[in-house]
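tool=predict chain=A
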Amino acid sequence: MIFPAPLLRGRLLRRYKRFLADVEMPGGEVITVHCPNTGAMTGCSRPGSTVWLSDSANARRKYRFTLEIVAAGEHRVCVNTARANQVVAEGIESGRVPPLSGYASLRREPPVPGGEGRFDFLLTDPRKGACHVEVKSLTLALADGWGAFPDAVSDRALRHVRALIHCRAERAERAVLLFCVMHTGVRIATTADGIHPAYGEIVREAMEAGVEVHAWGSAVGAKGIHLTGELPFVTPR
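tool=predict ok
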């Protein structure tokens, strides 16, 4: 995924009200930008961090600029959760995600079969059948290269996993939970049982029910983001 225009560099002053952040630009101007992340952004919102912003070029938009990337030490983290879907879709369509290759079509945001809400993708093929895919953006880094999801309690994330279990167990259709790791310092993915124990439990239940769980690393840069390859996914017991 290539950003349509070069990102602008600044310095994070604070992130607040979940969807807002104040950023100091190189000339000293302080602007308020949109922060498209509903999580806690643990380790990704320290005041003074270098950040990169996208410019909508729409002067009529209340918050013209969007927070895209935050520097976390020597690593970079994409905090715009919508980018994970874009990166994964591009990876699937270009054949860079072998477990999800070979399908005839990719549909974005299909309704959850027999339930509420939407999955991220539905892959279909006359020979392979249907494959329901839910993507989660993983940005929480732990120690020694480990990263975890979620970084805050998320009832929505629980519902998505339950829906994947239903598709696999009740409809006998393929179901995939894919963690798109958007932190360049993460090399192993897991569930954040210390933050949301119920999520770890439901993911383990899903795996036992036949739901496939994958984690894919990303190269995060000011010019663009792309998948780098599959990472180990380990569930704590």
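The mean pLDDT is 96. The two ends are 36 Å apart (CA to CA).
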